[in-house]
What does this fold into?
Amino acid sequence: MLQTAMIYFRTSLLRSIGIVLVASLSILNVIPAHADEATKGADSAKIMRDFYQQHIEAERAKSITDKDKQRIMFLLGVVLITLVLITGGLGIAMVVYGKQVFVPHMIFAGLSVTLAIVHAIVGIVWFYPF
It folds into this structure.
């Protein structure tokens, strides 16, 4: 009894998989619907012009003004000078006064170099073409 149930279940499972496979393959034979090819050239030009205008308006909405760019660069510069001064102070404290601040000195040096690279890249990308 148990063996016949397992055989019946196995064959019904295989049969179900076959039915699903045949049904999914039959979907591929559906004839595709074609768009109306009677559109005129003037209509397509108008559509392209509208899309272009929409793209230009979206770009203007996303753009940053030069004043905001200068403000961001100024703030990056202030933070960079502060990090460089802290790094220099920690270096002087190490050399002149013999303090054990090598790890903080290296951390601030790494942050200074990273921010200097970011500052240079942002400046080139935003202000190079003038």
Notes: The chain has a mean pLDDT of 82.
